[in-house]
Task: structure prediction
Amino acid sequence: MPIYNYHTIRNGNIVKDQSILFRAGPILEVEISIPNLLANFYQLRKLYIPSSKTGYAIIDTGCMITSVDDATIRSLGVKPVGVGTSNTASVSRSIV
Result:
């Protein structure tokens, strides 16, 4: 797993900024792919298996669910199976 030195880029220059961890929380590089069962289904039927997507995730120790960007998961051909509610200190909204 990569280890990140927290920094930001401003005007093309890397700026070390130790407050990023405080502001953004612990950030990890992640790879998202279709579920193994779906990949096996595609493989048995000789269907195209979409390439995984990489990006960044934040660890939220107070979170009770895991969510993925809608456009990212849909680009992998994964369809929603239901709708839930996401609650924060300031808002409650439906999520797919």
The first strand starts at residue 7 and ends at 10. The chain has a mean pLDDT of 77. Strands lie at 7-10, 13-16, 27-32, 53-58, 84-87, 92-95. The chain has one domain: 7-95.
